[in-house]
Amino acid sequence: MAPRYVAAVGPSAASASELEHARAVGRLLAEAGCVVVTGGGDGVMGAAATGATAAGGTAVGLLPGLDREAGHPAHTVLVATGLGELRNGLVVRAADAVIAVGGSWGTASEIALAVRTGVPVVVLAGWPLPGAPAPDPAAAPVAATTPEDAVAQALDRARRSG
Question: Considering the entire predicted model, what is its pTM?
């Protein structure tokens, strides 16, 4: 059975607690056999990749620019897309579920893209969730209280069977 791909998204300028949560999310996803997909940079993205690779997992970073050297070194694979912020769509569409740790405008765009395209979203310590209904109720964002809760909910709600 092919592994699930779960995106870990969040701010590049993350707080210490967001980084701790992201590392735990990456580790837990890797331990569950998932591939972790991020935007390839620092902050939550790098912390999730660090957690995943430290646990023996795979972390794929989809970078906004053309320079693979600009990515966080904990990623197993870095893809330079040259798409700028549009790469957020690639991150979401490559994933079976999205875990957002913390909040930023880029994170908000990834959450919105996921909801619009039916990819389930779990938010951990992020901005308040929007009150508007999701086009697909199964993809409506849900809140998590711990990294373990976030990973369990994401795996339970993943849109693909594997």
Answer: 0.94
